[in-house]
Hints:
This protein has helices at 75-96, 119-136, 141-156, 162-169, 203-216, 218-241, 244-260, 266-277, 303-312, and strands spanning 3-18, 29-45, 50-54, 59-63, 69-73, 102-109, 172-176, 180-183, 191-196, 282-286, 293-298, 316-320, 328-336. It is of the alpha+beta class. Strands 1, 2, 3, 4, 5, 6, 7, 8 and 13 form a nine-stranded mixed sheet that branches. Strands 10-11-9-12 form a four-stranded antiparallel sheet.
Amino acid sequence: MTTSxxxxxxxxxxxxxFGEHFVVYGVPALVAAIDLRAEALLAEREDGLIYIGAPxxxxxxxxxxxxxxxxxxxxxxxxxxxxxxxVAVREIWRALKARPSGVNVEVRSRIPVAAGLxxxxxxxxxxxxxxxxxxxGRLEEELIFKAALEAEKLIHITPSGVDPAISxxxxxxxxxxxxxxxxxxxxxxxxxxVGDTGLKRSTGALVAAVRALKDRRPGLFSKLLEAAEELVxxxxxxxKEGNLRALGELMDISHGxxxxxxxxNAALERLVHxxxxxxxxxxxxxxxxxxxxxxxxxxxxxxxxxxxxIEEAGGRAFxxxxxxxxxxxxxxxxxxx
Length: 337
């Protein structure tokens, strides 16, 4: 009979209320964690290898201490998908100057992939958190955020940092690149409906396309940045006052601004306009755009009607509650084998 130490951590998905894309250029983003979570199980092994499996995706393989990869399931695709998880775990070990001889990592997620809900960040945060607990017996939130940010760089090239921040800290935050997060207190309960187009897209490609637009039209883009910042300022005021109608109107304007930089598409427009026709206070794309998800702000008790309209327009819809809790340990201890 042998025992191995293990830890299971989970982290929430997110929706961006205001500021996507513009956050890369210094505009604050307003972001909420939602009660949809990814989970990572880490357990010690004795051969020095880091085995990572994502059974939901049919991907698995082994990394050695130097980062060389040997696939077990999923071939070449497995390395690209699993390396960010390896990086998140490795960065925690480096920061804490502690590592076990090896580790098994299993990740599972209820968060749609490539849909704008921060799936990759939630997975990286949960893996980093389990590594932190396994290595030091505590959650080092700042280290977890930084480790997940390094993992995100493999996926999004120049990430803003907002996704790993909200998955780590939870709740509702204002995030500004280079300045970190500020927790927000709001004057009303936010009832949201998320609509998923089912279209996967590359955040990195969309960010690059917006950057190319900025380079082609620098003067015009600077005015769009000013408008985006003014939207965030007004949204902060509406949130503080609990003025849901004003907040919804500002969401509609934000969607128009995002459409103007080319990140909406026909599928998103169908869902956004269906939600508005069904009585949503406001609706917009969330995340990088180009597919993925949109969100609708609704009056309390009206979510199911709006969700039905989104589904009739071709999307998959669900009600989302804001998750005040960020990353957490679900369970830990020794396991018998």
